[in-house]
Specification:
Elements: H1 3-20, H2 27-38, H3 43-63
Helix pairs in contact: 1-2
Length: 64
Amino acid sequence: MSSREDARQILQAVKEVSDSLNTGLEYEELSILTQLCEMGVNPEALGNIMLELKKEKANLTNRS
């Protein structure tokens, strides 16, 4: 199996877990977050950023 196929299968598993947890994250978002983690970005920090962005989006949506 190629490394590209391995990466696709891993990302598919991440998407399944994400869906089970009702994160609301799309495949592309998960791909970007996974790549950032692989580059050494702190996963907890990424999670906190995503939560803040979600809150800000809700605030902006409620204003309109």
